[in-house]
Amino acid sequence: MSQQEAKVRWGVLGAARINRRLIPGLKQSNNTELVAIASRDRDKAHQAAAQWGAELAYDSYEALLNDRRIQAVYIPLPNALHVEWVIKAAQAGKHVLCEKPLALTPEAVTKVMEAAVANKVQVMEAFMYRFHPQQGRVRELLAEGAIGEARVVRGSFAFPMVTGNYNIRLDQTLGGGALWDVGCYGVNVARWMLGSEPISVYAEATLEQGVDISTAVILDFGEQRRALMDFGLNYGRRSFYEIIGTAGTLSVENMWQEPDGEAYVYLRNEKGLTTIPFAPVNHFKLEVEAFSQAILAGQPIPYPLSDSVENARVCSALLQSIHEGRKIVL
Q1: Which end of the chain is more exposed for a tag (fewer CB within 10 A), N or C?
Q2: Threshold 0.85, pTM exceeds
Q3: Is residue 306 assigned to a domain?
Q4: pLDDT digit string (tens) for 260-275?
Q5: Cα(205)–Cα(179) distance, rounded to whole angstroms?
C-alpha cells in the first residue's frame, strides 16, 4: 500500500459532546479510519460506536489503548483528565490528538512532551482553527505587510452556557471556566499572529463556583504590541478576531466556527476594503488529515508541544492575575 493509500487507524477515548464535530471530519478524511470508541459506561460506548460507525466499542479506556490495531487516539475528556490519559496513551504506543487545553500548567505539558519522546509518538493539541485556510491567508497578508506592522490583536469568543443542571464548565476540579474553555483560543491566536510571547498579562473576571465565567485580558508583547481579548460563558455567541496594524486592519468573523461554514477575511488599508472569501471547508477534517499525514510520513507534526507549553504558561498566568488582582510579569 502506498503512503497516499495508507490510513491511520483511530480510536476515541470518551463519548463527549465535542465528538459530534471532530468525528465527522475524521470519517471524511482520506487518510484515517475510525476503529473504536471507548467509554466507562458500556451502554454509552456501544451507542457511540453505532452512531459513528466504529467497528469496536470498549467499556474502558485501558481496553482501547491495549488494542494493537489502533495507531492514534483522540482524547476529548474533561480538561483535568487530559494529561493522565495522554501519557497513558503514549505509553501504549499511540499517537494522540488531545482536545484543548492539553494541560492546565506548562509543567504538565512538559511531562507530556517527555512521555511522547520516550515512547516515540506524536502528540498535538487540537486547535482546529489553525488548519482553516482563512488563518493561513491572514498570516500571508501579515508577512506581505498588507497592514504595516501589527500593533494590536483584538478578539472575542463567547457563547451562553446552558444553566440549571450540572455543567462541567463550572467544575473547578475538572478545569472549568471560560479561560480554559474558550479563552485559550484567543491566547493562541494572539501569540501565533504576533509571532512572539507576551512579557506580562492582566485579567479581570466574573467568578461563579470558583471559576471564571466571563473574562477580559490584556497581553503585553512589548515593542508597542498588545492583545485585548474577552471570553465568556454567559453572554451572546461571538467568535472573531482582528489585527490592527500601522497601515490597516485584518478582520476575521466566525473564526471558531462550525465546520463547512462561510468564511471571509476582511482587509482594510489605504486601498479600501477587500473581502476575501473561502470555499466552505471542515477544519476538523483538515486538522485530522494533517496530523495523520505526519504520522504516515514520519514527519514532525504541524504544531509542536513547545507551543502548547507557552499557551499553558500564558493561560496559567492569566488565572493567577484573576485571583491576585494584579499584572503578572512572565
Answers
A1: N
A2: yes
A3: no
A4: 888 999 999 999 999 9
A5: 10
